[in-house]
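Can't paste images in this forum, so I'm doing it all in text. The chain is below; anyone willing to post the predicted structure tokens underneath?
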Amino acid sequence: MTTDKPARTLKLNPGAANKPPADPRAPRRAPVRPPGPARAKTVSASAPKPPRDPSPGYGAKRAGPEGERTERTERPRYGSDGPRSGPANAPRGEDRGWSERPAPRRADPPSGAAERAPRGPSAAPRPPQPHRPDLARVGNVRGEVRLNKRMADLGLCSRREADEWIARGWVLVNGEPAVMGMPVAPDAQVEVLPQARHQQAGQVTILLNKPVGYVSGQPEDGHEAAATLIGAPSQWRGDAKTPADGRRFAPEHTRGLAPAGRLDIDSTGLLVLTQDGRVARTLIGESSGVEKEYLVRVQFAPNGPQGAGVIAENVQAVFPPRQLALLRHGLSLDDQPLKPAQVEWQNPEQLRFVLVEGKKRQIRRMCEQVGLHVVGLKRVRIGKVVLGNLPVGQWRYLRADEQF
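Text version of the structure:
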């Protein structure tokens, strides 16, 4: 028996035939979601939050596998809803407004002097320490000073040499070996052993006619130190023929050779280099009053060396006498008044200065204050020692009969 089934008819979208074909280059639209349950709306931060039920803490009963409730004995952790420190009924987090926050604790007002607890007994005063000469405790009522300073004041040596001699055991104080840094009384007997005298006798002092372009001390700004000129080739021929006290040049004469005073890089003339601390103290010590003589060639430049009105010839005729008086006394450098100086005309373009102090670039800075520009400066004498006919760039030894 044959059963005829009704033919199934495929229904098409009536508007699909009239719809134009899709453009493959057009942007794709997001699919439309089918209708479903309503989605939860996002709550803004400003909207009030609904109160939430507190979750049970670690100490609360929880349902077990079969519905019974068990008891836990663990201690509550930080961040749980269990017991907290502070008031028992204090609100939590967002449930507590600004007005409900606990006020910060304030310090108790200071109580009166009568309410303060009495202090304990003060510590007993420290007993006076006995005098120990091996400690460098100076400046006491007995007028003691350090041994190296006392030796320098006596003219025995410099402080550096004194420390070296003390370390070698060449110094005795009241017949006993001296200790480094020890204080000595004014009436203490200081004795130097012959070994120190022998070492001091081998020290040399050199006189150099420094050229322009060399610095007195350590090399700087690409310029060499004047001490590099000391050697056998640059020794003055007159000194080499008849050396002072039969002394011949040796390489050890350049060790520890230091300048006793400065001479500017743009200046020339007499520069003293010495190994003897006594000579250095005499020339550059705090109480040094040794004269230093200079010949200074100047120009009158009231508006500066590059300004208008510079006069290079017969400067003496146009330079005001009152400005010359200021050079002698009345000027200050670095907010300190200068000591009186001897200043006089050597010729119409050259001044002669005699100073008893040596500040950095002192003569040049003094001349700038009175409208003079220095074009040449030469030191010709230190104390009683003169430059003489020593050629520029050459040196000689200080003779035994010469003293500053």
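The first strand starts at residue 62 and ends at 63. The radius of gyration is 49 Å.
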